[in-house]
UniProtKB/TrEMBL annotation:
Its EC number is 4.3.2.7. It is an enzyme of class 4 (lyase). Signal peptide: none annotated. GO terms for cellular component: cytoplasm. This is glutathione-specific gamma-glutamylcyclotransferase. Belongs to the gamma-glutamylcyclotransferase family. ChaC subfamily. Keywords: Lyase. It holds the Pfam family ChaC. The keyword Lyase applies. It comes from the Eukaryota. It catalyses: glutathione = L-cysteinylglycine + 5-oxo-L-proline. Residues 40-61 are annotated as: Disordered.
């Protein structure tokens, strides 16, 4: 029976972290990939942490770049059976040679035996995406789920001069702005296994911090089943017994005859219990290339004329909006959809007149305006 011996994985994450506090937060997150034995007795339960329900406030960006060594104790790669050439396709195959095992305390001194009754020692990291990470994670993941984080709203206030812009002609990419009553919908990706976690952290750092000027932080992610419409007055009457007994009503417990607008009222702590701590990349107003608020028309004009190594800024905005429309109907992000509509309108208008007026070849996007906004009529498209 193979022994999964532990090995210290020294993870150097150079960083733009602003304070030792932020380094400590990332370290705590990485340490939280440890799961206690009792927590994993209910196999498959997502990592829940009693952490704050509101997100960790992003720290101001500052210089000089600090470097942090984050050390994780996790099972040795020897216990992993990688598919030839490393992790498999986007949905990473379970890499552990101890399949089907619960996670245990990672970093414990004992070297657990890999057997059907010894949990898998592999770390699990959750990464939350709300912009291009949703439709282009570019890393192997074990599972993903739609949900939301609290205390932030999605905006396009971060400039970009690499993937979707050029120096002197920045594009705009997604970031999070703090908003106490806000919610940002997106996708949480589960990365499982020592090599996977290490690879993804390094890739994220290169893509987000080095190329994007983002910083990494942690917050609580709530899977979509946590999202309950505000019960209308009295709609919980029939459920109060369940709520009062502390037994949270969950949809299957509830009389299915309740009309749609009488959703089960889960007590707040049930929502908290179901949260997962995630790593998320955003920016603060002190970060490089932070552009901040501008009128939608101005932002759209900037976006329509920007492109970078990954493609046009139009593609970035429209693919983000399309992903949300298609996969996250709960997300009513008016900022995103107004910006998307204006970008498509500008592209359509330019092509309706003369594609030459656009510096970029956006012909592939010209049709998008009508496809997305069929109720719009060309004549309603104001002349520039
Ligand atoms: N952190 C946000 C934004 C991610 C993002 O857009 N990052 C930029 C960094 S410049 C990127 O990767 N762009 C790749 C692309 O534009 O194709 C998310 O969670 O989605």
């Amino acid at each position: 029976m193979q022994t999964c011996d532990l090995q210290i994985l020294e993870l150097h994450i150079g960083n733009h972290f602003k304070t030792q506090l932020q380094i400590k937060r990332i370290y705590l997150l990485l340490r939280r990939v440890k799961l206690t034995a009792e927590e994993t007795k209910t196999k498959g339960r997502p990592i829940t942490t009693p952490g704050r329900s509101s997100p960790e406030p992003a720290q101001p960006c500052s210089r000089p770049v600090l470097s942090a060594n984050i050390t994780m104790h996790i099972a040795s790669p020897g216990s992993l059976s990688t598919t030839p050439g490393g992790a498999g396709p986007a949905e990473a195959q379970r890499l552990s040679e101890c399949p089907g095992q619960d996670l245990v305390e990672i970093g414990s001194e004992q070297s657990p035996e890999c057997s059907t009754d010894v949990p898998d020692e592999q770390p699990t990291l959750w990464v939350f995406g709300y912009g291009s990470l949703m439709w282009k994670p570019d890393f192997a993941f074990r599972s993903k789920q739609v949900g939301y984080i609290k205390g932030y709203v999605r905006r396009f206030h971060q400039g970009n001069v690499t993937f979707r812009g050029r120096p002197g002609k920045p594009g705009r990419v997604a970031n999070l702005e703090q908003d106490d009553t806000g919610q940002t919908w997106g996708v949480a990706f589960e990365i499982h296994g020592e090599e996977e976690v290490n690879t993804v952290l390094k890739a994220l750092y290169t893509r987000e911090v080095v190329s994007g000027g983002y910083v990494m932080m942690t917050t609580e992610f709530y899977p979509r089943e946590n999202h309950l419409r505000k019960p209308s007055a009295g709609s919980c009457d029939s459920l109060s017994s369940l709520c009062e007994e502390g037994e949270a009503a969950s949809p299957q417990d509830v009389d299915t005859n309740i009309s749609l607008d009488r959703v089960p009222c889960l007590s707040a702590d049930v929502e908290r219990k179901k949260s997962i701590q995630v790593l998320v990349c955003t920016v603060t107003q002190e970060c490089d290339l932070y552009l901040g608020y501008d009128e939608v028309d101005n932002m759209a004009s900037q976006i329509v004329s920007a492109s970078g190594s990954a493609g046009t800024n139009v593609e970035y905005v429209t693919k983000t909006a399309d992903y949300v429309r298609m996969h996250i109907p709960e997300d009513e992000d008016s900022h995103l959809f107004q910006l998307d509509a204006k970008v498509r309108e500008l592209v359509y208008r330019a092509h309706a007149r003369n594609a030459g007026s656009l510096k970029l070849d956006l012909s592939e996007f010209a049709h998008m305006f009508h496809e997305t906004y069929p109720e719009s009529h060309p004549e309603s498209v104001k002349a520039s």
